[in-house]
Amino acid sequence: MEGLFFNVNNGFLEGIVHGYKAGILTQSHYDNLTQCKTLEDLKTQLSTASYGNFLMNKALLTTTIIWDQAAQLLINQSKFLHSTTMLSSRSASSLIISHPSM
């Protein structure tokens, strides 16, 4: 009987997590990334993936900017999960990578 109400109670969260999982880079994405010669090539390859345009508004690219933007994307996703669920602070912090801007 408890399985009958799973989607009512947990369906939204499961859908969000499935969406995040679908956004993980695939082997073909990694293969394309290894062929990049410049950071602009990397930016183009990431924009074709599910990461979308998170680097598009950056005129100057450095590895630090890419790291900061990717980390901020992960932090925002983790905060969204935390705000929509009843995760404890400890379990939510384990979802977020250690980053100096936190």
Automatic annotation (TrEMBL):
InterPro entries: ATPase_csu/dsu_sf, ATPase_V0-cplx_csu/dsu, ATPase_V0-cplx_dsu. It comes from the Eukaryota. One of its GO terms (molecular function) is proton-transporting ATPase activity, rotational mechanism. Coiled coil: none annotated. One of its GO terms (cellular component) is proton-transporting V-type ATPase, V0 domain. It holds the Pfam family vATP-synt_AC39. This is Uncharacterized protein. It comes from Pisolithus microcarpus 441.
